[in-house]
Amino acid sequence: MSGLDATDLAILRILAADATRSAAEVGRAVGIGQPAAWRRIRKLTDQGILAGRRVVVDSAAVGFGVTVFLGVRLAAKGRTSLEDFERAVTAIPEVQTVQHVLGQFDYRLRITARDISDFERILRRRIMTLPGVGQVEANVMLSEERRPGPLGAPA
Amino acid sequence: MLDATDRRILRHLLADPDAANARLAERAGVTTASLWRRLDRLRESGVIAAIQSRIDWRALGWEVQVSLRFTLDKTDPRAFDNFIAAAREVPEVTEIQTFLGSVDLRLSVIARDMGHWQQIYRDRILTLPHVLDSDALMLVSTIKDSAELAL
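Output (structure tokens, whole complex):
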């Protein structure tokens, strides 16, 4: 493990909620000075634990009212078919997330669309035509909550 | 309401959330001052709900990530509320989504290793209320993870 102490975990908790907090603000919140906070944030970034920023947009407010999670099974599973599928699916702009998984499906996709008919267009024209695609299961997302995760106690 | 400039800023911000503001302003074709003003307004109106740091759980020593899908017994009207309240009590749960479809709910759960996963699964997941059926998808790798929208 990366040898994090309680202060590091507290810093991760703060930045995971709001990445725009300055090193001075973070330092004040965890009871250390700005330079010490900056050094710790730098170390967490260098270790790859702080891995960039995520912008959370109210997608309905910008005209993307529908988010769908897709489970995809490939019809054939050679190494080339995985690579072909991955190359084609990541190029679809409406596909935000592609995860290779083990279980009932081979891939999990997260798709955003303007509305259900827009989703139908993406599904028919872009997803069903992907190389090697077999069974597909769609679930329309109703709500989503991100949790802070296990940052409570030092490991 | 959003105008074309707001959309352009959002598009560039979502495509490269780590870009410095000066860079973002340049790409969106606005001054830095105007970018600040517009970003403030987008945050105040809730269009930008949050800007968060991503945590790479694998880099932190959490090697296992599982997507758990549940079908609930909806004969009890409080099934969703009770299940979600109980899932929030499990620190290893990082995401909770509800769905319309054959799956009612999904949890993202992380564990340090397979032994730890087995322990969380037995002690915290199998004890969640109102579950009729569940299945697990074990993450092998993330190929793409972006918040981009075709704005």
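The domain at 6-46 of chain A is CATH 1.10.10.10 (Arc Repressor Mutant, subunit A).
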